[in-house]
Amino acid sequence: MFTHSLPKLFSKTETQEIIRLSEDGRQKRGGLVGGIRHDNIRRAEISWLDDQGSAAWVMDRIVDAVARSNRDAFQFDITDFKERLQVAAYDEADEGHYDWHSDIGDGPIARHRKLTIVTQLSEAENYEGGELEINLGSASYSAPKELGSATLFASFMLHRVVPVQKGQRFSLTCWCHGPQFR
Ligand SMILES: O=C(O)CCC(=O)C(=O)O
Ligand SMILES: [Fe+2]
């Protein structure tokens, strides 16, 4: 199916700490894979974590989860983590969302994305809408909304974040890289 979910990858305290770390580097409006900004496609505030420094423990947990999930569910060639961890905030105030897209882009790094892992950093009852959906062709898979759970999918799969109608949703995204699919 090319999707795989893990419950409770991070605890509540840890998700709060990740949001706090992201506040240091917050910038307005997330760009797209190639750096293009387009408000009709994505409306979110993004920031990047220092995975060599204050957020090294977050990266360690993600790398471990990816190794286990890749062995159990994907068996892709994953060789690198070439990008920093992204925290995104989708807000009711501007109907934060991200339309259908694939994470594999044209750039030298985005071209090598193989797996995407997204962790839920907000309590499900704190927002409405904001579902992460992965297109499976005739149906779509809606990622579990439980705080701290993570969902992995092949980066080429179309996915979206439904507009947030109430409250605010935070997510943590990490991309895993390897030789191009062949
Ligand atoms: O926030 C999410 O759930 C998904 C983010 C995403 O798809 C991306 O940044 O490429
Ligand atoms: Fe994406």
TrEMBL record:
Its cofactor is L-ascorbate. Signal peptide: none annotated. GO terms for molecular function: dioxygenase activity; iron ion binding; L-ascorbic acid binding; oxidoreductase activity, acting on paired donors, with incorporation or reduction of molecular oxygen. It comes from the Bacteria. Gene3D superfamilies: q2cbj1_9rhob like domain. Residues 81-178 form the Fe2OG dioxygenase domain. InterPro entries: Oxoglu/Fe-dep_dioxygenase_dom, Pro_4_hyd_alph, Pro_4_hyd_alph_FE2OG_OXY. Pfam families: 2OG-FeII_Oxy_3. Keywords: Dioxygenase, Iron, Metal-binding, Oxidoreductase, Vitamin C. This is PKHD-type hydroxylase.
